[in-house]
Amino acid sequence: MKLGYLGPVGSYSNILTEKHFKTSEYTLHPHSEIRRLFENLDNGDIDLAIIPIRNSTFGQVKESAAEIARREDLIKLEEYQLKVEHCLVARAGTKLENIRLVSSHEQALGQCEKYLTNKKINQRIKASSTANATERLSNVDQIEGLDISECASICSETCAGLFDNLIILEHAIQDNKDNTTTFHLMTNKKLERPQGDKLLDHKNDIFNL
């Protein structure tokens, strides 16, 4: 089965997907945007999608809610909880006191609002995912006219470790130490259960947000 998730590698969706679906029954397909996940479900390019639904600190994932509201044929197969711990990441040699701008997914920015305010990091740039923001930080010399030594991203420790030129300035910067995101495994078709797979044993139910 083809399973889509919000990528790239290192995103929280990727971490959850690798944990639960890295078997011979599935081929994993990263997507650059949540919108593209739903579009590829619609056109049959993927059979299943891992969708971030809500966070215990910052609430509903707006992009997911908007896409779900446009469709009547979605089926929730399973629900997952992922504890989310954010890191503040910057280029090697950067000092925390010099950071003026941070980029990440809207959810990550919201989950770290108190921390960012306390550190007086006032310029926030939204990205399609935490991993995309971090990949950009690794590859460019400036963001929004600021030198890269004044910029940071918010992502997982796993994501930060993918880039040799990045360092973690601080760990566990989320405002709520029990910060958790709920994901749904979703489809829009009746699927035959793969042999040996237990995820689809549960009775399917239509998901209404």
UniProtKB/TrEMBL annotation:
It comes from the Eukaryota. Pfam families: PDT. GO terms for biological process: L-phenylalanine biosynthetic process. Residues 2-188 form the Prephenate dehydratase domain. This is Prephenate dehydratase domain-containing protein. The lineage of its organism: Eukaryota, Fungi, Dikarya, Basidiomycota, Wallemiomycotina. One of its GO terms (cellular component) is cytoplasm. Keywords: Amino-acid biosynthesis, Aromatic amino acid biosynthesis, Lyase, Phenylalanine biosynthesis. GO terms for molecular function: prephenate dehydratase activity. Pathway: Amino-acid biosynthesis.
